[in-house]
Amino acid sequence: MNILIPHKWLLEHLKTKAKPSQIQEYLSLSGPSVETISEQDGDSVYDIEITTNRPDSLSVRGVAREAAVILERYEISSRLKPLELKIPDKPEVEELPLPQINNDPSLCQRIMCVVMSGVQSKPTPKWMAQRLEQAGFQTHNSMIDITNYVTHEIGHPCHAFDYDKIMELGGVINVEEAKAGKPFTTLDGEERETVGGEIVFTNEIGTIIDLPAIIGTANSSVDENTKNVLFWLEDLDKKKVRQASMAHAIRTVAAQLNEKELDSYLGEDALKRGIQLYRDVTGAKVASEIFDEFIEPPAPAEIKIENAQISRYLGLDLELDLIEQIMTS
What we know:
Blueprint (H helix, E strand, L loop, with lengths): L1 E5 H4 L3 E3 L3 H11 L2 E8 L2 E7 L10 H14 L4 E3 L19 E3 L5 E10 L8 H9 L7 H13 L4 E4 H6 L3 E6 L5 E3 L5 E3 L5 E4 L5 E4 L3 E2 L12 E8 L1 H10 L5 H6 L7 H17 L2 E2 L4 E4 L12 H8 L5 H9 L1
Parallel strand pairs: 6-9
Antiparallel strand pairs: 1-4, 2-5, 3-4, 7-15, 7-16, 7-17, 8-15, 9-12, 10-11, 12-13, 13-14
């Protein structure tokens, strides 16, 4: 899978004076393969191939993390910049109730969401639209483009529901496995039916209100009249996501990320970044507590490997201090 990353966007996460040609050369030798560099709107845009076993690198920040370590090996000063994700610790305006969320733990490991009120439907700012277009995205409006921006920057998919539509549909979101033949209308106006086995979100009477990670539905999507947004992230069963994506022939970035088993802990950074952007770009305010249902948070995996194995894989011997430095950079 390839990812397009503008150089200026990369430098918001990577502190280095390396030139684009150096980043291309040294990353390609030691990590993600930078296949080409193109010049667009006064910026260099990297076209980078990411192998399927490295979904942690499928984002601006993921590539910056790799570059921060690799460039140091070639004696080019570099470091990963810390994320500055300051958000209000409580609702800023009169609180709006969250929908009733009924999760199926076998289908969804984590759900995070927050209500943002007073959203102003504005054109996407030029700086954001330009970056998204350089990264290969079509731009729409600020409410939608913020979700694509966060996904590409942090590496975790996210979604914007029209909060008021959700509440008018009953204020309930059920996570369930679809039976075959259930009709729904997607946000592009197309009438579709479930094939069976997809993960769907439904309301209290069983109406489908989202085909998560694949495509939104017309009855819950944001539009020019949206005033309040339910900003939403979920971690879904990867096999179910791939099944739905292939069955409906819809290949989205969200589907491709979900089916590679995302790091569930990325959700926190993505949620905070989204809140920042909704506040800054659309003038929205936080209008609820943050909902976070995390089913059995995974403990960090302990990986044991003999130094002799590392030497065999690399064909050279490394000092233990250097190995530790690389792994903790």
